[in-house]
Amino acid sequence: MGSTAGRDVAFPKTLIGCGHDNAGTFNRNGSGLVGLGRGSASLVTQLGSSIGGKFSYCLVPFGSENRLTSSMNFGQNAVVSGAVSTPLFSHVSQPTFYFLKLEAVTVGKERLAFGGSSVVDGEEGNIIIDSGTTVTLVPSDFFAQLSDAVDSQVVGGEKARDPQDFLSLCYVADYSRLQVPPITFHFQGADVELTRDNAFVQVSDTVTCLAFYGSDDASIYGNVAQQNFLIGYDLQKGTVSFKPTDCARN
């Protein structure tokens, strides 16, 4: 791998899988998957002590001009300064995931206590942060509250149906003119305010939808919400940090 020292660094005996029958969201334009979880085969685990348990990424928004590439850093260069940080938790039943403790979500000036217990199966952490999941998943009852709060404060759009029949709160509107309320995620010790691009996705030329989905299987903080944030993981300290950043320039 290339390094900030200007020379390549070798990591011997690194396991890399090869897929021959790929389906789902995979196609010939995808180069593959970078495993960033806690599993034994992930790249982060295999790099081990050489990166000091530190890595970061900065995801450029969907639809960015000039096919801009998101950036990743490992080791000391992955330390995020001037950021808000929240503890990372792990669950024995789902050992590869990173769990956070979400306390509430504020829409405009309306604060909604998060319906998911801060303790799941006796372990702390009630929402997974995942760079590989697109939209943010929350419990169905909480999603209903969140949708009502957002809908009551949106200006400049008419209710519409998602052409893909997936997202449920959608509007016909000029995306640039759609006025939406600020949405803030209150994690333990860290408030993360989302921009419109973090909370909404344009699903067609005329339709824009809230990038949240009601699910009673798992709560996941998805990658749309993480766009244009420099997000740094420190597995030794057990924290993840968020810093608003123009990832196209990072």
Plain-language structure description:
Residues 1-243 form the Peptidase A1 domain. It is found in: Secreted. GO terms for molecular function: aspartic-type endopeptidase activity. Belongs to the peptidase A1 family. Strand 4 and strand 5 form a beta hairpin. This protein has helices spanning 43-47, 140-151, 196-199; strands spanning 54-58, 71-74, 84-87, 89-91, 94-100, 102-107, 110-113, 119-120, 123-124, 127-129, 136-138, 158-160, 170-172, 183-187, 190-194, 200-202, 207-210, 212-214, 220-221, 229-234, 239-244. The protein has a five-stranded antiparallel β-sheet with strand order 2-1-20-21-3, with no helix packed on it. It has a four-stranded mixed β-sheet with strand order 4-5-10-19, with no helix packed on it. Helices cover 8% and strands 33% of the residues. It starts with 42 loop residues before the first helix and ends in a 6-residue tail after the last strand. It has 250 residues and is mainly beta. It is globular, with a radius of gyration of 19 Å.
